[in-house]
Q: What sequence folds into this?
């Protein structure tokens, strides 16, 4: 039997690679997608071989991640429950897609992942696999009772790694899990499970990797200009950039100014609430600037239609339905809405916040001559027309009041 494992070199996958190999008497192939982990990728080949893998694929998917996953999601304005920029969620369908491709090429009988039976990632991986390779078996050790019996908690897994001589970042001195990619870093479990714990307190500063605390950010604001074409950022401060370069540049700038930190209790797809802490410096700037660009280029009703679909789109990404037909249909609508989202937004970065400092577009629908409170030289808007507009919109309210009485509304 040959099994392809989604491998990060972290605590869970370091343990379960050898466990799966022994349980299934299988040849293990490890796969690690470089979606922006940076230093976390060092030493993976040696570690995977030591743990029992016959081969490892380490592939740089960062450009594809930025271009085909992060940017389309940003065009949709997707944010989950008003706070989460979906950093972990959006990486999973790309990783699953490449896993399926490698599994096919290697003649694997199954793919495996280290997502827990309580989390969202198990759903995301397996829904993607179901859509792309419905005949491929998926192995999920955390849903295997014998695995849970051997490793009831993080301590047992850490002890196992120490005994096996496998270096891992997790320890009892730093009992939380971390997931990093080009869009964000997430922190959860361990000390993060107490929602009263202040993750941003001075004593916890060492945990954060992408951003400084806002109070430690520069005292002087920094201004940057983001140029958009069809809803995608194509340049920063006049310099043309690829999607990957955009994300890397914004991460650096946002991190410098302490932007994009989020601490939230969210609703997992599997039914429970969980607490997560996130750093999304570049994504927060891009999300904000994109919305500002839309504000002067998108037709009102088109914007409101798209905005009404944001919760659904974000929920689809969060829950793992990236390859579902309804997400693809929504993306087609989003793409249509972005055709005129062109221009430049000037943003001020200061102490953890983004402020708009200017917008301009060749497709701007904002006309100061029409919007002015002074006399309208274009005569495009006759204020007398507002009387009829109000009367017509008030008609149903008046009828309701006559029939049911206005006292029922108070």
A:
């Amino acid at each position: 039997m040959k099994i392809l494992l989604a491998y990060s070199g972290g605590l869970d996958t370091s343990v379960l690679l050898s466990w799966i190999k022994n349980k299934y008497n299988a040849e293990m192939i490890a796969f690690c997608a470089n979606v922006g982990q940076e230093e976390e990728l060092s030493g993976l080949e040696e570690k995977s071989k030591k743990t029992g893998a016959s081969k490892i694929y380490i592939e740089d998917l960062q450009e594809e991640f930025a271009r085909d996953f992060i940017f389309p999601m940003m065009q949709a304005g997707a944010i989950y429950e008003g706070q989460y920029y979906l950093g972990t969620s959006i990486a999973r369908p790309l990783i699953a897609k490449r896993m399926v491709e490698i599994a096919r090429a290697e003649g694997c009988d199954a793919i495996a992942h280290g997502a827990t039976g309580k989390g969202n990632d198990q759903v995301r991986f397996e829904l993607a696999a179901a859509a792309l390779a419905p005949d491929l078996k998926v192995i999920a050790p955390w849903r295997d009772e014998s695995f849970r019996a051997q490793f009831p908690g993080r301590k047992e897994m850490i002890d196992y790694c120490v005994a096996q001589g496998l270096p891992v970042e997790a320890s009892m001195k730093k009992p939380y899990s971390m997931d990093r990619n080009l869009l964000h870093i997430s922190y959860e479990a361990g000390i993060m499970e107490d929602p009263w714990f202040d993750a941003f307190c001075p004593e916890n500063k060492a945990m954060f990797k992408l951003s400084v605390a806002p109070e430690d950010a520069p005292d002087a604001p920094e201004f940057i200009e983001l140029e958009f074409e069809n809803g995608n950022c194509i340049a920063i401060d006049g310099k043309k950039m690829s999607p990957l370069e955009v994300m890397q540049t914004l991460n650096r700038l946002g991190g410098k100014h302490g932007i994009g930190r989020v601490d939230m209790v969210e609703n997992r797809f599997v039914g429970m609430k969980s607490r997560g802490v996130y750093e999304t410096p570049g994504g927060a700037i891009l999300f904000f600037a994109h919305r500002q660009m839309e504000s002067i280029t998108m037709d009102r009703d088109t914007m409101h239609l798209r905005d009404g679909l944001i919760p659904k789109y974000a929920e689809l990404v969060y829950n793992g339905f990236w390859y579902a037909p309804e997400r693809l249909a929504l993306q087609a609508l989003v793409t249509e809405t972005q055709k005129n989202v062109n221009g430049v937004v000037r943003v001020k970065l200061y102490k953890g916040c983004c402020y708009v400092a200017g917008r301009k577009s060749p497709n701007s629908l904002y006309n100061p001559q029409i919007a002015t409170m002074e006399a309208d030289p274009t005569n495009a808007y006759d204020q007398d027309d507002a009387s009829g507009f109000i009367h017509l919109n008030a008609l149903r309210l008046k009828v309701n009041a006559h029939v049911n009485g206005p006292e029922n509304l108070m």
Remarks:
- Residues 69 and 90 are 7 Å apart (CA to CA).
- The chain has a mean pLDDT of 93.
- The two ends are 71 Å apart (CA to CA).
- DSSP finds 13 helices and 14 strands in the chain.
